[in-house]
Structures are given as structure tokens and as C-alpha cells.
Write a structure and sequence with these properties.
mainly alpha, ABC transporter involved in vitamin B12 uptake, BtuC, two-stranded antiparallel sheet, globular, about 5% strand
Length: about 325
């Protein structure tokens, strides 16, 4: 019995490492989407429930870009996509979703900026449903196969443990985008203006900051990050539908709340925690409850620490 236990320990350790890698990949996806939620909330104190659908549109923008560039056909014939092609597809998806995010803010949200919060919230839900069912009309409700832009070539392959090129690329791109956002927020004029508006919008206006421009930048950057997550996760999962943003968007919202809504490092931490928790459940006999863990975590956080892990409790005028 002791010998069997000793032999099983290395295997358990390798399986643990494998689940850690899987959790890091999934958590990176959630973190990228959660950043959009937390940025918009930080500036407007508003939950953009259409954000998950921007993630879906980003996946479709990447899908159509790959088709137009001939990448999908080449991959179907056994070819490979170059680094430049993948970067261009990712850029097209991010720019397309950024423009959609700006359009939604300008048409749907800006006229309601001074309206009661419930009005804006209901509008966000309406925009979400409009995008979802509009996408079904435009793209077909049937699942479509997303091209494997990055091969799953094993970089490390051991018994019960494997790291692929695709996993490394997803983690590396996610980390790069998160670091780029951090540099943008703290080292650029627009980034400093975002922090000022998030701290006190009326005071920022009095200081001469054009809050409309800042809000447009916030929606554009948040939407671009969601699009990047859409392309990366669709490459990982290989299938897209017009409704893929519903569950993923809700989970990313849970991640943002978990880390502390309005807190950028908190959104990243919340995404990673959720990714690890979800992967841990999927590795057990209770894998059917994988999607439920996000909402169980949300309930616990709201009961124990409503402000989130890194969030701060603040008084609000009523």
C-alpha cells in the first residue's frame, strides 16, 4: 500500500501542475474580459451587460478576417498560419470590436448618462439581446468551426502533464495586453484622465478634462480586450456561436466583482481565481457543476466581502 502511494504521488503532482496550467489559460481569458467590465464601471459606475456580446463579435471578426485572408483555407489543407497573419487577425478583431463598443456608447448609453441607473441597466440588457439575436440573423445560429490559428504543438510533454504552444501563446498575449493596459493607464495623458474621471467625474470636468472622449476611450479599450479574449478562446475551443458571450460574459462579470469591481488589478486576480476554481471543479467527479462554481463564488463574495478581494468599501450619497 505504501509503495502504491509513493508511486501515485508524482502522478498526482503532475496532474496538479496540468490543472494549474489549464486554470491559468482559462483565467487569463476571464481576466481580459473582466477588465472591460471594471474599466467601464470605474469611470461610469455602470455595468455594461452587453460586454460579453462584444467578446462574441470579436470572435466573429477574427473568424471572417481569417476567411478573407485565406488563412482558414490554408489551415484546412494542412498548412500553418504565420505570426504576422495571427497578429493581423487579432488586430482586426480588436479594432472592429473597439469601434462597435464606441458606437454602442455613443448611440445607446450617452443619451442616458444622467438617467437613473436602472434605466441604463435595462438599456444594457436590451443592447445585449439586440446584438445576440442580430448576430443570429447575420451569422446563422448554427455553430461554426473557428480556424486553429495556433497549433497545439506540445512544448513539454510528460506523463500526465503537457504544455502546448497554444496555451503558451494565450498566456503570453494575455499578460502582454494586461501590462500594456497598465502602462497606458499610468503613463499616458488619456490614462491619467481616465483615473481622474474614475476618481471624481464632476471635478475632472471642472479641471478641463473632456469626459466624453475619456469614456469613448474606455469603451474602445475594454471592447478591444474582450475581442482579443474572443479570438484566443475560440482558437482554444474551436467553435463559435452568436450566444457564446452569454455564459462567458457572466463569468467575467463574476470575476470583476470577485476582484473588486472598478479595480484593474482586482479584475485580473478575480479572473485567475475563477479560472483556477473552475478548472479544479472540472477535474473532479463534479465536473457537471463547472459553470455553477462562478455563481457560487459570487454569492459567497457578496455575503463575506461585497467590495471584492482588492475592492474598497466607500460611502455613497443617496
Amino acid at each position: 500500500m505504501g509503495v502504491l502511494f509513493c508511486q501515485s504521488r508524482p502522478r498526482l503532482f503532475m496532474e496538479f501542475l496540468q490543472q494549474c496550467v489549464n486554470g491559468l489559460v482559462q483565467g487569463s481569458i476571464y481576466a481580459l474580459i473582466a477588465l472591460g467590465y471594471t474599466m467601464v464601471y470605474g469611470v461610469l459606475r455602470f455595468i455594461n451587460f452587453a460586454h460579453g456580446d462584444i467578446y462574441m463579435l470579436g470572435a466573429y471578426f477574427g473568424y471572417f478576417a481569417a476567411n478573407q485572408m485565406g488563412t482558414s483555407a490554408r489551415l484546412g489543407e494542412g498548412g500553418a498560419a504565420g505570426f504576422g497573419e495571427v497578429a493581423l487577425i487579432l488586430a482586426v478583431a480588436m479594432i472592429g470590436s473597439a469601434l462597435v463598443g464606441v458606437f454602442i456608447e455613443r448611440i445607446a448609453y450617452r443619451p442616458l448618462r444622467n438617467a437613473p441607473r436602472l434605466t441604463a441597466l435595462i438599456t444594457a440588457i436590451g443592447v445585449s439581446m439586440l446584438i445576440e439575436y442580430g448576430a443570429q440573423s447575420l451569422f446563422s445560429p448554427n455553430p461554426q468551426s473557428f480556424p486553429k490559428l495556433i497549433p497545439e504543438t506540445p512544448l513539454i510533454s510528460l506523463p500526465d502533464f503537457q504544455i502546448t504552444l497554444l496555451q503558451v501563446v494565450i498566456i503570453a498575449v494575455a499578460i502582454t495586453l494586461m501590462l500594456a493596459l497598465q502602462v497606458f493607464i499610468f503613463s499616458t495623458k488619456i490614462g491619467r484622465a481616465m483615473r481622474a474621471v474614475a476618481l471624481d467625474r464632476p471635478a475632472a470636468q471642472l479641471m478641463g478634462i473632456n469626459t466624453d472622449v475619456v469614456i469613448l476611450w474606455t469603451f474602445a479599450i475594454g471592447s478591444a480586450l474582450a475581442a482579443a479574449a474572443g479570438v484566443l478562446n475560440s482558437t482554444y475551443q474551436n467553435t463559435i456561436t452568436p450566444l457564446i458571450g452569454i455564459t462567458v460574459g457572466l463569468k467575467a462579470f463574476v470575476a470583476a466583482v470577485l476582484g473588486g469591481i472598478g479595480n484593474i488589478p482586482g479584475a485580473v486576480l478575480g479572473g485567475l481565481v475563477l479560472g483556477f476554481a473552475e478548472t479544479a471543479v472540472a477535474a473532479t467527479d463534479y465536473s457537471a457543476y463547472r459553470d455553477a462554481i462562478a455563481f457560487a463564488i459570487l454569492i459567497v463574495v457578496l455575503l463575506v466581502r461585497p467590495s471584492g478581494i482588492l475592492g474598497k468599501t466607500t460611502a455613497e450619497k443617496v
